[in-house]
């Protein structure tokens, strides 16, 4: 069954019945076209602006994703390259602050270093130190270490440490 188009429609302004294909009411002269048909130039401009906005949003999203990936990559490179140095610097700092008679012993990996950005690491670890009775006491410490850019120079760093016990 074929659907038939109506032969007439009602004018939205004067409510008169008019021919279905009419673009202007013969009685009240109202323009019966849609807003977009009445304003072709504005419609084209708005369509162009919408198109450009969508393309820009898509390209910015791609660009931001690429920047985040490269930023994460460089952060991971710095972390891998200087993590050990930060832990060694913290160990050296703690060693210089302790009395040499205390015979400090550090865990094998010198603790855990977390990269904070700007060549700064937070190092959390412990040290076993001999007390006056010759018994080893474990003390936990936390250091903020700013490392220099020379990978194997373990004295090219600035440390601020505090004991946590």
Q: How does this model look, in words?
A:
The structure is a single chain. The chain is an alpha+beta fold and 165 residues long. The protein is built from 2 helices and 6 strands, in the order ββααββββ. The protein has helices spanning 35-38, 40-97; strands at 8-10, 17-19, 112-117, 120-130, 136-147, 157-163. The longest helix has 58 residues, at 40-97. The protein is rod-shaped.
Helix tally? 2
Q: Any idea what the radius of gyration is?
A: 37 Å
Q: What integer is the average pLDDT?
A: 80
Q: Strand percentage, roughly?
A: 25-35%
CATH class of the domain at 77-163: Alpha Beta
Q: In sequence order, what are the helices and strands, one letter per element?
A: EEHHEEEE
Strand order of the largest sheet: 3-4-5-6
Shape: rod-shaped
The total of beta strands comes to 6
Topology:
Blueprint: E1 8-10, E2 17-19, H1 35-38, H2 40-97, E3 112-117, E4 120-130, E5 136-147, E6 157-163
Antiparallel strand pairs: 1-2, 3-4, 4-5, 5-6
What is this structure, in a nutshell?
The chain is an alpha+beta fold. Helices cover about 40% and strands about 25% of the residues. The chain has two helices and six strands; from the N terminus they run ββααββββ.
Q: What features would you highlight for this structure?
A:
single chain; 165 residues; alpha+beta; Nuclear Transport Factor 2, Chain: A; four-stranded antiparallel beta sheet; two-stranded antiparallel sheet; 2 helices; 38% helix
